[in-house]
């Protein structure tokens, strides 16, 4: 395996780069952060960065992939919990979102933040965001479908919209209040499902 000169093997250098990019991209945005700053703060050379990533766009995609895998892990753990009812698993997914909102340094949804900077639907970053969101919508809709013998497509969309609103508001207002409001909204969806009532506003 080739070695870097920045304090360890190539995997360590890549890990530092991705860790620093994740920290800065999430806290400050993507376009505002240049390669020079990333390499300086990760304590690597430009040559090392380009050995691991074809460019900044590739690093951005790796950042989003890392966020995607982290979120999938939490949501999948909640969705597959043994001995939990389908409704409780939906609640667990909601609680995993609330944990993010209440965490120190919360700056909203990494994917919504990224897509705001990459509005072109053909751009790889934009497509990565849409793929993540489609997975999340499909997963939540599948869970909600198990809570009642009724179509769950509208309920799934409602859940995602509630989540989007909570993630946007959670870094602007009181995160405790936003979290409680979001979880109340999830309960409203589940009540509608349990009563087979309308899952969309009139």
Automatic annotation (TrEMBL):
Keywords: DNA-binding, Transcription, Transcription regulation. The keyword Disulfide bond does not apply. Coiled coil: none annotated. Residues 34-53 bind DNA. It comes from the Bacteria. PROSITE patterns: HTH_TETR_2. Residues 11-71 form the HTH tetR-type domain. Transmembrane segments: none annotated. PANTHER family: HTH-TYPE TRANSCRIPTIONAL REPRESSOR NEMR (PTHR47506:SF6), TRANSCRIPTIONAL REGULATORY PROTEIN (PTHR47506). This is TetR family transcriptional regulator.
């Amino acid at each position: 395996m080739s070695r870097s000169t920045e304090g360890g093997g190539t995997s360590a250098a890549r890990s530092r780069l991705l860790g620093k990019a994740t920290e800065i991209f999430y806290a400050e945005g993507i376009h505002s952060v240049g390669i020079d700053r990333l390499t300086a703060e990760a304590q690597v050379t430009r040559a090392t960065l380009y050995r691991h990533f074809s460019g900044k766009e590739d690093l951005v995609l790796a950042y989003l992939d890392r966020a995607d895998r982290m979120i999938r892990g939490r949501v999948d753990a909640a969705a597959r919990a043994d001995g939990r009812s389908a409704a409780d698993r939906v609640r667990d997914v909601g609680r995993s979102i609330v944990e993010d909102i209440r965490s120190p340094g919360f700056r909203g949804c990494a994917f919504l933040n990224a897509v705001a900077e990459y509005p072109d639907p053909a751009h790889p970053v934009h497509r990565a965001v849409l793929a993540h969101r489609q997975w999340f919508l499909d997963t939540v809709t599948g869970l909600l479908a198990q809570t009642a013998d009724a179509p769950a497509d509208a309920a799934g969309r409602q859940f995602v919209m509630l989540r989007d609103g909570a993630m946007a508001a959670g870094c602007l207002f009181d995160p405790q209040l936003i979290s409680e409001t979001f979880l109340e909204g999830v309960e409203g969806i589940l009540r509608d499902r349990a009563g087979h009532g309308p899952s969309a506003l009139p």
